[in-house]
Structures are given as C-alpha cells and as structure tokens.
Amino acid sequence: MLTVKLKPRHRLFCFSVNGHVKMLRLALTVTSMTLFIIAQAPEPYIVVTGFEVTVAFFFIVLYILRLDQLIDCIFWPLLVFGLVASVLSIADGALIYRKLLFNPSGPYQKSAVHDKLVL
Fold it and tell me: Which residue spans traverse the membrane (predicted)?
C-alpha cells in the first residue's frame, strides 16, 4: 500500500484546516441568513448577510478550483465586488434621494390630535 503525504502547500483546500473553517463559516452565515428571513428581520440584515454568503462562496470556489495559483493577481474578486458594491450604493443613494424628493417629511408623518376632525 502506497501512501502519499502531501506537503502543506499542495494539500487540497477541502481537506485543509483552513478549508474546513471557511466552509463552517459559510454554513453559519447561511444559517443566520435563513433565521433572519424566518424571523422577518429588517431587510438590511438579510441583504448584508446575503452579500457575505456570496463573497464567502466565491472565495471557496476560487480556492477549490485553485485559481489563486493560476492567476497572478488574486485581487480581482475584490475589484469585482468593490465595483458591484459601488454601483449598488450609487443606485441606492439615487433611490433614497428620489424618495425624499417626493416625500420630504419622511415616511412617518405625525399629525396632531387637534388636526383630526370629529363629526
């Protein structure tokens, strides 16, 4: 029986301690996002956890396919996600500006008791 010991840098990502930790983190993040959805938490919580799940998933795929060793510049995922986040932030700001333009007093408008007419 021939056993081959892989050097730590040649060990597959799925069988490394770092791989197990990253996959456990992804599972916990997916679980927290699921619980946020079930508990009907505010949408920003769900969106932020969904973004974190997406980023963690793509990094795990990157390491499984060993693209970090094939591509010289490993920072391209950060560039892509940074550009996507920038575009979404600009779009969100434009939508908030538009909403405040049409409703300058805000979403919750309080009225005084004496303003109500009782017939």
Answer: 21-39, 45-65, 74-97
